[in-house]
Amino acid sequence: MIRAELFRYVGLEVSDDTLSGHYELDGRHFVEDVVFENVGPLRRPALVGVAELWYLLAGLSYYKAGAAHHVDFGDTPVGQHGRALFEAALRDGLGEFSFRNNVPLDDVLITGGQDATTYLATVDPSRVLIPFGGGIDSVVTLKELDHLDCSLFIVSPEAGRFAPLEATAAVSKLDVVRATRRLDPQILRGDDNFFNGHVPVTSMVTVLAALAALASGHGAVAMSNEHSASAPNLRWKSRDINHQWSKSWAAEVLLGDALGERVGSDFVMASYLRDRSELWVAKQFAQATGYHHVFRSCNRAFTQRPGDRATNWCGTCDKCLFINLILAPFIDRTSLYDIFASEPISDSRLDDPLRSLIGLGLQHKPFECVGDPDESAVALRYVSQLPEWGDVTRLGELARLTSPDRDFSELLEPQGSSRVPAHWLR
Fold this sequence. Notes:
Layout: E1 6-14, E2 18-25, E3 28-37, H1 45-58, H2 60-63, E4 70-72, H3 80-93, H4 95-101, E5 109-111, E6 127-131, H5 136-144, E7 149-157, H6 163-172, E8 176-182, H7 185-189, H8 201-215, E9 220-223, E10 234-236, E11 239-241, H9 249-263, E12 268-271, H10 278-286, H11 318-327, H12 333-340, H13 351-357, H14 373-384, H15 393-399, H16 408-411
Parallel strand pairs: 1-4, 4-5, 6-7, 6-9, 7-8, 9-12
Antiparallel strand pairs: 1-2, 2-3, 3-8, 10-11
Helix pairs in contact: 1-8, 1-9, 3-4, 3-9, 5-10, 8-9, 14-15
């Protein structure tokens, strides 16, 4: 396919409860709307500043259709940190898109944009908004922060809410602040002339959460991105390609700086799980038994079209396999089967995906939100030694082929840096 020439930021509209971002790709117009519920009026200077950050990042969903050589911000307020965030989101956040389409984006010319104005926001640091996806990560975050005044933030597509996410949120009994995304129908419908691929959607949700927090009296956003989200899937054309870039430490720092540029440093955005491994998260989740039969991490339950959504765990995708693997050290085999209604890690048909998870596959780590190969290998070695899994001999055979750099106990200790404020900790 031929790349487009020019992607333009045409304008952002902000009403009391709705954002509308307008874009043009070689003259073709796109618009995305986000409608909020349970918030105060959005047309306040600090909130409009955060909305402008969303507008910059949301444009990538439409930019990717043509992978234009030139991006023009026009008179959009961008700012120094906003520009740094956008450039990283374009080149690293669209890294998987670039790799899959063989379209390097190092040549993109970025012009236009104005300085951003800082409007200091008055915030209540004890009130925390938690973006909630219905999986083990955000469940652990809300459980760990239950000594604070927390609410959930849920983003849904216009086609309808996700049933397992809503059921899991209901267990928490926390108040919910909502947003509904209305993607441009042209993107949903597709076009033979469009490029397709992954965009850094979590970075967009993070900024929407910050806007929702400020508009509903919360002073912070607690993300649920673990240490291993920073681990790349592969190296391509001298650049790390990371499916989870928008959940990475680098993205968190850039997002924090860009938000600070708009509303000051009193407002906090940090990932509570940043210095924790997937195994640590799994261990905590194993104790949250009230969520075991409602949570869902299988991506086939979260497709845009309601009719295509799986009604239970598919048991065959990389995400099902990974979650099954990391929970197995902490939840007994019978209970684990009751959750999944299947047993992915004992399914010999999933040998190749399992090999990829633990770093033995011919392919790179899957383009999914899964842990790094070390974490998966350590989990497998541990599970293979449990008597209740002794009949699945292939687990031991695969485990003996791995040589992780860390052991089980190390992965249950803090890993790396964190921006979590002290008052979030017990």
